Amino acid sequence: MGIVVAIDGPSGAGKSSTSKVIARRAGWNYLDTGALYRGLAWLAIRDQLSDPADIVAALKKSPLRFNSDPSDPKLFAGDREITDEIRSEAVTARVSEVSAFPQVRSALLTLQHKIIAGAMRGIVVEGRDIGTVVVPDAALKVYLTANIAERAQRRDREIVEATKQSHVAQVEDSLAQRDHVDSTRKVSPLAMASDAIEIDSTELNLEETVDRVWEILKQRRLLGMPIVAILGRPNVGKSTLINRFIGRREAIVEDTPGVTRDRVTYECQWNGRDFMVMDTGGWESKPDGISVGVSASAELAMQEADVLLFVVDAQVGALDEDDVLVQELRKMKKHIILVANKVDGDREEALAHTLWNLGLGEPNFVSALHGRGSGDLLDRITKVLPEVGGAQIHDGYRRVALIGRPNVGKSSLLNILAGQNRSLVDDVPGTTRDPVDELIELGGSIWRFIDTAGIRKRANQASGTDYYATLRTQMALERAEVAVVVLDASLPISEQDLRIITMAEEAGKALIIVMNKWDLVDEDRQITLDREIDRHLDQVEWAQRVNLAAKTGWHRDRLAPALRTALSSWERRVPTSRLNSFLGTMIAATPPPVRGGKQPKILYATQAGISPPRFVIFTTGFLEASYRRFIERRLREEFGFPGTPVQVAVRVRESD
To answer: Is 224 left (phi over 0), alpha (psi -120 to 50) or beta?
Structure first.
């Protein structure tokens, strides 16, 4: 089963339209669970049934079958297509009643699980209990909503197109009644999952709503990473080229042909694009012995990859075997890039021009050993990478890094959350040296916690074991979405504590400060601690703070709500219209200060990204740092953002 995206919400919020566009864009399957319930209502009407047991029996006689193609979703009852018939007024009036029966929901839940399990790359599932009941472990849960007036307008527009008559008031009453029935039924009521992202589409059109979901999918790296397969005869330098791409000697390289035998993938990044490079064994047109398996593995790589890199030794030139491989590559109907390797100078470059004869276009001249031309080749690769890749590297669990000084209780916290001794705990500072991953159920959700080594000093000041432990901690922080900085509440806040908090803030991660060992804090220490917080943590007053005792588990239940709040803020996007309306009101009340005899004019603002929220203010002149901080403070007052840094940049340009 591939990635599952669950989209819940009330009727008329735009779930179906959004889900189908997302599924088409990603090349995934699509499931409208509401259509299945409508299908059962249609069966109940056709056979004049009211007893839930009889309705389930009718389902067995006429099994519902859903075509999951988002471009042309269809529903069949037995061999009869009922896609259009289930949208009738009679079915609409009956579906809430039918869907409230526990037996009916149980029968359809089994069918839904079967359809979802059959989606190999991914599926977008929409309905009213997807994130809470159908797939509670979905990689992404979205609760799509809009105010009832806007939803009524949207539904009425659909009715006008069909009947040429408007009934907004009646539609609004019908939606209100449907909302009440859906949210108050005893079995699987409409409710937002605790870890879902709420998107209010009242002020968004379809394109903007889709972009919002797509942005989150990209940020969480759920779209999959494109795979670039490196193919060619033995000993043409494929592994050397991969080492050049990834910037380290990881792929085994020897002068002996056939060192690489299996398909091995490595993560690579260039120009902000992440992708996987797949090293393959040398392909031979007439393999024998172990070469048979190696060549077969290379052919599987051609099928799995999104982009094919065909590497030829420019000093040897194209052989007959290369012509055979070219024919195989063309059968894949994928983007092929021709690489002429071992081009160390002008003589080899002149020889490499003969590779035009392969019919794969212009050869890219590189020297994998010396790095010549590798940057240009990577530029070309990133230009043709697809938006959605075949390598799923993330499982959808939110990633939380536990960081802090040695001996503040990070491992104890992980162990009490995990319910077992997952990390070694000792009074000796620095017991943990390598990051430890653990999937932990907390507050009704599963989280991926990463316990890290205690940071003693700056990486450039540390030596030996401490140096590498600090580097691993920094890498774990880069992988994480939330940084939980653990402090020892019984000791004064140190300069190193503040440096670690700054490190998490500068990394742009959502931030929670855990005051651990609270069982050791007496009344006098609490008064002193409050003063230290006011004095030292004023720059991150937006950070969530949780007081707990890891040793006993006291108040550990407060961590999950803080994590959800911080992540919600971290991924929040403010509609442009609301942002500029707020900005206009703010400027009218407090205009920017005059600088050099001129008052800069703020033209407009936009949110450039999420994770963390990044805002760009376009002005006609420089804005003082104090006014930028004022803007950030007012943004927080207006829109919230607890638990996440907010970045405000100013772009100066001439006004029209």
So the answer is: left
Residue ranges of the chain with per-residue pLDDT less than 50: 252-262, 288-293, 423-426, 428-433, 459-460
Q: Angle at the Cα of 643 (from 642 to 648), degrees rounded to 5?
A: 75
Residue-wise burial string across 599-632, b where 16 or more C-beta atoms lie within 10 A, e elsewhere: ebebbebebeebbbbbbebbbbbebeeebeebbb
Please report the pLDDT score of residue 421 as a whole number: 59
Q: What pTM was computed for the model?
A: 0.81
Which two structure tokens, joined as six digits, stand for 464? 């030996």
Cα-to-chain-centroid distance, residue 636 = 24
Amino acid (1-letter code) at residue 423: S
**Which two three-digit tokens encode residue 550?**
């890891």
* CA within 13 Å, CB half, 646: 27
Nearest-5° Cα angle at 329, 323 to 332: 155
Tokens 């983007």, residue located: 335
Rounded to 5 degrees, φ, ψ at 549 are -125, 105
pLDDT of 261:
38
Tell how strand 140-145 and strand 29-32 pair up: unpaired
Strands of 647-652's sheet in order across: 602-609, 614-619, 647-652
The partner residues of 337 in beta bridges, in order of sequence, read: 309
Distance CA(491)–CA(25), nearest Å, equals 53
CA distances from 515 to 29, 234, 539 (A): 45, 58, 17
Taking the C-alpha atoms of residue 16 and residue 294, their distance in angstroms, rounded to an integer, is 46
Rg, Å, the chain Cα set = 29
Q: How many CA atoms lie within 13 A of 424 on its CB side?
A: 10
For 77-93, how does the pLDDT look when each residue is reduced to its tens digit (9 = 90+)? 999 999 999 989 899 88
Per the CB < 8 A criterion, the answer to whether 140 and 216 are in contact is: yes
Tokens, residue 519: 């069982």
pLDDT at 251: 55
| Residue 102, preceding peptide bond in cis (omega within 30° of 0) | no
3-state helix, strand and coil shares in percent for the chain, rounded to the nearest 5: 40, 20, 35
